[in-house]
């Protein structure tokens, strides 16, 4: 069993930065690829970023590419999302998710994700 706990959300002005963390309890964190999703009020949950088991590869949604960076520290059982040049449209609840699979296909196939965090609110003011 793996528990995921996000932290680091908050209120920031447009153009600012935040770093989200997702800490995992339990063993075998490195067996899981990690994903970040976000969901704004009234909208569907959307993919943000993903990182492979060892952290060597990653991929991003077009909307955040060049502004967000995903990383992980397997020794600390933690995955990060560095968010720069934030825009009001980045306002959402951000969720981390763990999956044994690492692929950009079928990202909205929710059954592929084994564990989810509770979410962290990010609000970007204009």
Outline the structure in words:
The protein has no helices and 11 strands. The strands form 2 sheets. Strands 2, 4, 5, 6, 9, 10 and 11 form a 7-stranded mixed sheet that branches. Strands 1-3-8-7 form a 4-stranded antiparallel sheet, with no helix packed on it. It has 126 residues and is mostly beta strands.
SSE layout:
Elements: E1 3-7, E2 10-13, E3 18-25, E4 33-39, E5 46-51, E6 58-60, E7 68-73, E8 78-83, E9 92-99, E10 115-116, E11 120-125
Parallel strand pairs: 2-11
Antiparallel strand pairs: 1-3, 3-8, 4-5, 4-9, 5-6, 7-8, 9-10, 9-11
In short:
This protein has 126 residues and is mostly beta strands.
How large is the share of residues in beta strands? over 45%
Structural class designation: mainly beta
Parts with pLDDT < 50 across at least 5 consecutive residues: none
- Oligomerization state: single chain
Spell out the key features of this protein.
single chain; seven-stranded mixed sheet; 126 residues; globular; mainly beta
